[in-house]
Structures are given as C-alpha cells and as structure tokens.
TrEMBL record:
Compartments where located: Cell membrane
Pfam families attached to this UniProt entry: BacA
Organism for this UniProt entry: Oleiharenicola lentus
Example GO biological process: peptidoglycan biosynthetic process
Keywords linked to the UniProt accession: Antibiotic resistance, Cell membrane, Cell shape, Cell wall biogenesis/degradation, Hydrolase, Membrane, Peptidoglycan synthesis, Transmembrane, Transmembrane helix
Protein name (Swiss-Prot/TrEMBL): Undecaprenyl-diphosphatase
Top EC category: hydrolase
Domain of life (superkingdom): Bacteria
Primary location class: membrane
GO cellular component: plasma membrane
Record keyword Hydrolase present: yes
Note: Bacitracin is thought to be involved in the inhibition of peptidoglycan synthesis by sequestering undecaprenyl diphosphate, thereby reducing the pool of lipid carrier available.
EC number(s) stated in the UniProt entry for this protein: 3.6.1.27
Hydrolase as UniProt keyword: yes
Amino acid sequence: MQNPGPPQSIKLDSTRALRGHGRVISALRTLCATLLLTATLGAAEPAGPQAAPAPAAELSVGDAIVLGVVEGVTEFLPISSTGHLIIANRVLGLESEAQLKDKDGQPLWHKRPTEANPDGEPLTLKLAADTYAVVIQVGAIAAVLFLYAQQLFLMVGGLFGRSSAGLRLLRNVALAFLPVVVFGLLLHDLIDQYLFSVWAVIVALVAGAILMLWAERWREARIGVGRAKGDAADLPPRNALLIGLGQCLALWPGTSRSMVTIVGGYLAGLSPAKAAEFSFLVGLPTLGGAALYKGVKSGPAMIEVFGWSNVLLGAGVASISALIAVKFLVHIISRYGLAFFAYYRLALALILTIVYLL
C-alpha cells in the first residue's frame, strides 16, 4: 500500500527546513495517538461521584461507534461524509424534531424565547445529532495531523522563512480554504434549513459521480501531454483559489469536499495522489473551522443531550477510521483514479432511491 507521504519536490526542500525537527514530529504523532487512546478509553470509564447530569436523550455506545466509523471512513473519501451521516442518523432514529425535556419534565431550549424571537428554538434530538456529526470531525482531523505532520512543520517553516516550498504550500492551502469560509458563513443557515435531506443527498451523489467520471476521462486524455505533474506547493495562486471556489460546491450535502478538491487538483494538473494529499491539507482548516463554529453555536446543547462520553467515543473512533481511510484512498486513487468511487456513489444513490420510494 502506498504511503501518503509528502511530494518529492517538497522533500528536497524540507530536508533543510525541517532539520532538527524529527523528534518534534515524532512527539506530535505520539501526542495524537495518545489523545486518540485517551478519548476512546475515557468514554468507557465509569462515572464517579461527581459525574455530570444524565443526558437528556439516549445515544447508545453502538450508535456512537457507528457514527464515528461513518464519519472517519467517509470524511476524506470522495463519497460525502455529510450525506452518509444524514443517512446514518435516519437509520439510527436520530431525526426527531420533538422538543426534549429534562428529568423534571421541563422543556429544554437551544435558544430560549425572547421578545425578538418569541418561539425560541427548542432543543431536539435532530439538532443535537447534526451538531454531533460535525464536532466528531475533530477525530478525522487528528488522523491527518498524525499522517501529515511533516508537511505541517514544513508550512510552519515556510511561515518563518525557512522553506520556500513550505511557504508556497501554506499560501495555496490558505487560498483554497478562504472561499469556503466566506460562503459557508453566508449560507450556513439556509443549507441547514433546506438541504439536509435524503433527496438532496441523492441528487448530489449522482451529480458528483458524473463530474468524477468526466474528470477522470479528462485527466487520462491529458497524461500523454504531461499535464499530471507538479506538487501542491507549485500550483499558481490563481489555481489554488479556483480549487477553493470549487470546494464551495461541497456545501451541498452529498457532494463531498474531498471530491471537488481532488477534481480541482486534476484540472490544475496534479496527479491523483497529489490531488488527494492537497485535499487532506485543505481539509484541516475547513473541517476544523466547521467543528469550531458548530461547537460554539450548538456544542453545549449537544452535550446536554448526549453527554461527554459519547462525543469522545465518536471522535476517537472517527480518528482510527480516518487513519485507515486516508491510506486506502491514496492507494486506490493512485491505481484506479476516481472511477471506483464514482460507481460507488451511483450504486448508493440507486439503493437510496429504491429504499425511499418503497
């Protein structure tokens, strides 16, 4: 299996830029692994005398593990993690919009009624589950930090003038991240209200599969004239920004942030493996920003519903699953391109259509 290491040209520059940082990189990886183990085992520890109040709704250990596996496996594969989590929430029965109540029978609120908003925003199982799906992305982020610690230190070195390749890579990651921040903040509430549905996911799965098959044919036609060259650090700023604009399509659930970033990398002239690696790096600030935004906005409500232990367990499982999935993606896409995942998306869309029509 191919190790998703740094691109060759970056390695040459990083030899000088990262000299002396080997122990730091190893320590970072050890820390990530320790945090992962602590999160997973901590969820199974018995509650002590000072335990937090019981959750308002039941999320079984099995449910937390299922959601963690779905998040970790699908976050970096071009098959849509959000789409799969929407489906998983429905299968697990986590879509109820009935207002939850505390142990005394009093209604729970995400946002209490005010003069400006007399109806308030009730605390529901669906709201907590949607937040949970985003917050446990932290586990998937930890997996990429573990695997790509060297590139991260290279970018840090570039920031301090120690690596020109690292500085270019940091610039391109920032440019690819910027558009999704702007559009994500502007459209977040509309997306939550109108696009989190199974039918929206089905449409996006099919459209994404068609785009992937087209991109794969386009890439294969261009390989003969040397289009699949270069590293992410060597992308012109304009191309990095265009990849970021394309990433905004992934705000539609079911599209896949990884998919549109990889397709953008294809069109910019990157090989499949290098396009996938760039999608991982761009995913760090994208997923981290989404998790932070959702955590600040609805995190306390989610904890009140599900409790801390299941959140830690889901994040831990997501991290282990993502470690495996990232290696799997680089191996498959290097050998077969995007077609494998495109056909999976079409099959999934067909199955979902049959299930929901029947």
